[in-house]
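Hey team,

Filing this mostly as a record. A colleague (T.K.) asked me to run one chain through the structure pipeline before their review meeting, and I want the input and output archived in the tracker in case anyone asks later how it was produced. No errors, nothing strange. Just documentation.

Input sequence:
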Amino acid sequence: MKIAQIAPPWVPIPPPNYGGTENVLFHLVEQQVAQGHDVTLFAPADARTSARLVSFFPHSLLQENVPWTMHLKAFYHLQKALEQVEAQDFDIVHTHLSSSADLYLFPLTAHLVMAHVTTLHSCFPFDHTPDGWCGDADTYYMDWAPSVPVVAISESARAQSHFPLNFVGVVHNGVETRQISLPPQKQGAYFVWLGRFVPEKGAHLAIEAARRADVSLILAGTIDRHVPGSVCYFSEMIQPQIDGEKVIYIGPVDAQQKRLLLGSARGLLNPINWEEPFGMVTIEAMLSCCPVISFDRGAARELIIHGKTGFLVHTLDEMVQSIARIHEIDREITRLHVESDFSARRMAERYTQIYQQVIAMNTNRAAEERRKSTQRLPAALISSPLDTRNFSAN
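Output structure:
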C-alpha cells in the first residue's frame, strides 16, 4: 500500500524526550515500512525515519522556538504537503490532529478526492491558548469535519467528543516492543512520575501520595517553556517540594533513560486530573515491567487491568493504599499485557484495516457520484453517441 503520512510540524520525530503523538507516529511509520508498505513521511527535516522523507523546512517548530500560538509555518507545512500528495498517486493519506494548528486539516482535506483519514490524538476544544483563554472556533470548523474520516485513539476519546465527527474506528496507540530490554531483577525502592509539568498530569498529587505512603518519588519530565502555565506550575507547585531525598527531579529523559528508570522503579504513579485520551507513559511503563497506579479517568481502564498490571483508583487515599500493595502485581504479566495488546505491529495492522475500509468507502462514494452525474445527463446523450454529421465544419 502506498501511504502518505503528514506529521504535525512542531516536535521532531521521534521526539528527543517527550512527545506522545510524535512517538506514536514514529512507531507507526517504522512498522508500516517493516511490513512492506511504501510510506512517505511529510515532516521537518530533523525527523529520523525509514520512510521517504519530504520536508519544507529544516527544523521542527519548537526546535526553532516558534510559540505554539504562531500557526503560519504550521499551515504552510500542511498546505505544501497536501499539494504534493494531490500531485502523486497515494492509496491513502493519513493526517494527525494533535494541536490547534492541526484543525486546519478539516478544511484542507474535506474535499480531497484521494482516500484520507485523520487520527484525533488530543481532546477538543482546540481553540484555546496556554494561559487558559478558550474560544468557539471549534464549532465553525465543524462545517468541514463531517466530511473527514476520523480515528479515535481510545473508546473513551471517541465517547468524549460532542462534535459531529465522522468516526470510522478506534485504534489504540502502540510501542515497539522489541526495543525494550528486560529490566534488572532487583527493583529500586522508588516510585516514578513521568510526563509534562502541567496541572492535569498530576505531578503535585503524585508527590502528596508518595509522602503519605512514605516512599521515594523520582520526577522525570519536561517544563514547556513556551507555555507560561507550565513554568508557573513547576516553580510554584513542584519545585518547593523537591528535597533531593524523598522527592527527586532528574529533568527530561530520553528513550534509553526512560526504560532504565521505569524498569527499576517499584511502580508509576499516574494521578491524572483530566479525561486523558490515551496515556503513552502507561504502556511504556508496563512494557518495562513497571506496574501503574492511575486515577480511573479517560482511557486508563482500557490500558490497565486492575489488580493484574496495576491499580485503578478514584481518590488519593486509594492511591496511597495501592502503593502498599504494589508487590501483588506480577511484573512479567504486566510486560506481556503490552506485548499482546499494545505493540506497534498490532497498531499498524489495525490501521491497515482502517485504510482498506476508508479506501472502499471512497471508491463507493466516487462510483455513486458518477452514477448521479450520469442520471443528470440528457437521455439522448446517454442512449446514443453524439452524431456530428449534421454539424458544419465551420
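Quick notes for T.K.: The CA atoms of residues 197 and 312 lie 22 Å apart. The chain has a mean pLDDT of 91.
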